[in-house]
Amino acid sequence: MHYTKDHEWVRVEGDVATVGITQYAADQLGDVVFVETPEAGKAVTKGDGFAVVESVKAASDVYAPVSGEVVEGNGALADQPAIVNEDPTGNGWFAKIRVSDRSQLDGLMDQAAYDAYLASL
Amino acid sequence: MSSSMNTVGRPTAPTEVDPIHGFQSLTGGRGLLQDEPLIFEMDGWDKTGVDVPDADLDASDLGALVRRDPIGLPGLSEPETMRHYVRLSQKNHAIDLALYPLGSCTMKHNPRLNEKMARLPGFSDIHPLQPQSTVQGALALMDRLAHWLKTLTGMPAVALSPKAGAHGELCGLLAIHAAHDAKGDHARRVVLVPTSAHGTNPATAAFVGYSVREIAQTADGRVDLQDLKAKLGPDVAAIMVTNPNTCGLFERDIVEIARLTHEAGAYFYCDGANFNAIVGRVRPGDLGVDAMHINLHKTFSTPHGGGGPGAGPVVLSEALAPFAPTPWVVSHEDGFRLVEFEEGEAVQSFGRMNAFHGQMGMYVRALTYMMSHGSDGLRQVAEDAVLNANYIKARLSDVMSPAFPDGPCMHEALFDDRWLEGTGITTLDFAKAMIDEGFHPMTMYFPLVVHGAMLIEPTETESRIELDRFIEALRALAGAARAGEVDRFKGAPYLAPMRRLDETQAARQPRLSWKAREGSNLAAE
Fold first, then answer.
1. What is the least distance, in Å, from the CA of B150 to any CA of chain A?
2. Domain count, chain B
3. Which domain holds residue B269?
4. Does the beta-carbon distance from A33 to B445 stay under 8 Å?
């Protein structure tokens, strides 16, 4: 698993990256009440917003950790946004993205680096 | 019985009884306040409260579109309807009841003199379509108000018509867009906004079609100049900065921010929501601002929200003035007239934001406020607003944690939730407990850059005694939080008409319209 400073996680299988927000992000947001995930076929650029998450406290963009094309958005979150709080790194995934440039993964944090980053906040 | 009884047997002193713990009334009423149903659930479906004569119509042009079923509204009488709404209003909080410390909202007293002036028939009984020769007094008032706004801000032009702060932001960005267009510069697609901005800033930029780039904030709560320099470029149309900012701090590098912005060919939009902290002391025009909205319902004491419509006039620099929206008032030898069309002197105007000229009633109230205070009085408004906020900050800093402890704040005092750490109590719990103590909570969880933010804006209209009462209530609650009285907070509010609401459920499964319960005899018949 890889992580960004904006608290997204990435899990790569083959050339497809599954992307979501971390437990820390979910806890900070509080109860998630609305999620908008991208549709298949949409091109996303690393660093740009590709999904929206809204809680009772705040609304924020979810930034694409890698560039590529969306293979699938997690439509289940539209009806049950609570999944993001219950299982952020599992069923609460946001999108699967076909990675266009694997070297972009090198710039991301691994678990140890992310833990250290959280400790520094 | 004691002797406290008059000749017809009426007790004249209270009888001593042990207090009932967890007392509940039999009906849900509370101290002369009845439990209030929805108006749809009051008994009134089989009757009508008003006596309307039968309509004597020959034929209808609606054909098959004529309604066949009853419209289905409760048929309450005038006293029933009036009491329903008055009872609801008694459950509400208002600036006329007590201090309303919502940070960033500037809930100050609305002087009654403003109301008296706004009700003068020459202002209240006129119509925008009247010939201009018959409303010269109203036009003169708008001209006078424009003069005051331009003088107080040091700016050469003002658009009076925007109807609120966000509408003013839209006006400013449309003028900026028009100015870039006039120069043939179509490459500027980005608006820079600091992380602590009001949410309306990025929303306005997006609405105009710009994309938003965030500017980082320094550890002491101000715009990060290095980050600003890195993000300015030929694609940037404007920067939007609030000053004083939403952390209640003066952007001390504001002149440099303006210089860098202009050097990059962009315009400087200032969010003037917090102008009340600097009015009479700082002129935004001197700082290099190109456009700024002024919330008349904040700085100039016109009513907020349900109390009346907002008004958000926008002052404009020399560079943006030609693009101001129509209409505006000009004086000529015989009086005043409205410039209404995008021709002649208004040929570069970006157009019209309203059908008419804006909120006349608010203009009257705002000018009344200005003239009754005078320029020295307005200066004192800013001084007292800042003094009151610093008094609160100083008196609470030993029990709560100020987000930016170094130096004074401006018109609002910002605390974070570090001081609640380990108590199991959150900012939300603390705010709800304030309701039980008789105080409306402060703004919470805003600005987003401060964890568990509590933003308190007392305004200049609160007296020392009132501030002390508020401070003592917060100190008592802080003491209870430290003493581990968690239930006092987690269960709050205990005494409000409604207990804690489930915001999550309300947002996830909102019920936006009333439906009769299954099996209910309340149906639309």
1. 36
2. 2
3. 113-370
4. no
